[in-house]
Amino acid sequence: MLIRLDDVELRQGGFTLRCTGAFREGIHLISGPVGSGKSTLALILASLAAPGRGSIHREGIDTTLLSLQFPEYHVTCATVEAEIRSWGLDPGEILLQAGLDGRDGADPLQLSRGQLKRLNLACVLAKNPDLLLLDEPFGSLDCAAKVRACRMIEERASGITIIFSHERSVLPRVTTIAEMEDGRLVICGRVPGAIARWQGAPPYLRHALAAGGRPANITLADAREAVCRIRD
Ligand SMILES: Nc1ncnc2c1ncn2[C@@H]1O[C@H](COP(=O)(O)OP(=O)(O)OP(=O)(O)O)[C@@H](O)[C@H]1O
To answer: Does this complex have an ipTM over 0.85?
Structure first.
């Protein structure tokens, strides 16, 4: 499986997105500050926005899902149960996954945004598409829910998963890292080598690197482990 962007360019207002790069099976993080173009790139990869120039090449990708940054944009039904069924999924399992046991009769738009985010994440992961695009999957979640979301994403055993996020505290283990810098996609490469090239790396990773540690991946636990190994 592969998705490749060749000199893709999109202009919207005064903003220009320019992207070249490829993503294979695995979990990929595209980090970047607010307004750097992450959501715009997610829409292009989901074929929901057409670039003005360049091309996108897909290999072995039959199914694509984009989890939007704002989960209320996904809502189409009057109850949580109907919402889950509209994805073609069994409510029992999804309600447990989303921590919403007993809320099947609730109006999805009366859930908190964090609860709705958990519901959407449980649904898109259960659908197991070839290409899964997650726009700010940790937005509106508390720390425990972010950790749980990370584990659920890590458990996805196959396919291409691309996470678009400015999250800098709770992150899943990933295969590669890239950054959006003012509309330009910068590929840092495979982990662990990419960590030192990641300009937007969270402070705990910068601290571990500065101390001489070599984190195996990008979680806080990886950074701690790297620092402990220096002290050994
Ligand atoms: N429909 C549009 N028309 C004109 N400009 C747009 C449109 N959508 C987004 N933009 C602009 O494109 C730029 C990139 O926006 P985008 O939403 O992709 O950023 P982002 O990195 O996802 O930000 P955030 O982290 O806040 O979600 C911003 O300057 C934004 O104002």
So the answer is: yes
